[in-house]
Predict the 3D structure of the following.
Amino acid sequence: MSKMRLRRVTLAGQSWRLAGWQADSFFRHAGHHMKGMAELGAVARAVLPGREGVVVDVGANLGLSVLALAPLAARLLAVEASPRTAAALRATVAANGLEARVTVAPVALGAAAGELAFHESDHSAGSHLLSAETLGGEALPTVTVPVETLDALVARHGLGRVDFIKIDVEGHETEVLDGAAATLAKDRPTVFLEFNAWVLQANRRANPRAVLEDWLARFPVAHALRGAAPPLRITPATLLDFLHDHLVKRGCADDLVLGFDDAWVGRWQAA
């Protein structure tokens, strides 16, 4: 394994250090992810205008999303299932002096407690598989990682409330939401997550339309980010129009914001 390195990245005009490995494509091409991080930060600023909120970052990876979110929150719980990637995440947190506000939780989140086989990849910290039958995962080294629910993790870390949740877990977003039912009911946080029809089908054999319908049933308000344009409201009546755009025009890549009201939209400004 190559030696862990630090590289400079700039987010919202601020310079940070990101830890990772030169062989890792996510680390090498971190600049390609800056647009997504800027959009994440723009939503978080609208949701957490006082910068006093509590954030849970599920699928924190090497820590780019942590760097986008940490300046906007009083406390941040960064969740990363891959033991190798979690080590780099801790190094990113330490290199930027964020230990007082950011706690790393090296676990997977799901619908119930347990454990799962996790396939490590030296190629990309952002591409780990949880099933040997998908995308050649059987050829990758395997580790066993613990699984918790988000509700249990929040309780274990003594978070009195949660204001904002970011989820990017390669198609397993629904399982994370299943394990967050109590937190969602009590705190009504805003949820920023990835919707990717290809990953849902490849990694979970899930029907993207059914997944989206399920999410819309859980949250009264849903928006898709559209760059500098105002966030696009998605409703059951417009679901198929959105899905057509997602599949045909956007290459199966959308960031959605799910919530219980749309107050953040009035404060939102394009990244």
